[in-house]
Design brief:
The protein has helices spanning 12-70, 72-82, 90-94, 102-128, 141-148, 151-159, 163-175. The protein is mainly α and 176 residues long. It folds into two domains: 1-53, no CATH class; 71-175, no CATH class.
Length: 176
């Protein structure tokens, strides 16, 4: 007979439940052990998965930095943005001046768009998907500061649909 904490037999549903456990403990014990083991295994899976995702983010960000540093179009755009390009300045590129060959201007504007497209994808990851944070963009924040500190480039971004790149650059700049 099952005795409750008060010393009297339990009544109602508690009595039925306790009787069920007493009669079926040989079946319930392996189920409880398996559930506990499964829960611990699932917890381990979550911990490992979180570490793997953190590494994937790191790998992705370093790949973006490598792309910025090694892609010839992007390095040339950075030279233009920094004022170190031997033939082109940002002011000349974005002006309507006739002294720039239209084919050359189109080539450089394509490179500039390629540069801005990279940051447009990153801003989407930060603001829409929320898979990246502004803090995680610090290793490539220098490039964002170029966007943030150039009025002609900000104007170009606004005119050609890169307004979210400006937002990313400004918010990243505020984080400093």
């Amino acid at each position: 007979m099952i005795v409750g904490s008060t010393g009297f037999p339990p009544s109602g549903l508690v009595s039925v439940f306790l009787r069920f456990i007493e009669e079926n403990w040989q079946i319930l014990l392996p189920i409880a052990i398996a559930a506990f083991g499964g829960g611990a295994g699932f917890w381990r899976f979550l911990v490992v998965r979180k570490a793997e995702l953190a590494w994937k983010k790191t790998e992705f960000l370093f790949l973006q930095g490598y792309y910025l540093d090694t892609n010839s179009d992007l390095t040339e755009v950075v030279q233009i943005l920094e004022g170190r390009h031997p033939e082109m300045t940002l002011a000349r590129l974005l002006s309507d001046a006739d002294d720039v060959d239209p084919k050359q201007r189109d080539k450089y504007l394509h490179m500039l768009d390629k540069f801005l497209n990279l940051f447009d994808r990153l801003q989407y990851s930060v603001f829409e998907l929320k898979t990246l944070s502004l803090k995680e963009l610090e290793p490539i924040g220098w490039y964002l500061s170029i966007v943030c500190n150039s009025e002609p480039l900000k104007k170009y971004c606004e005119e050609f649909g890169y307004h979210d790149v400006i937002r990313l650059a400004e918010e990243a700049d505020l984080e400093d």
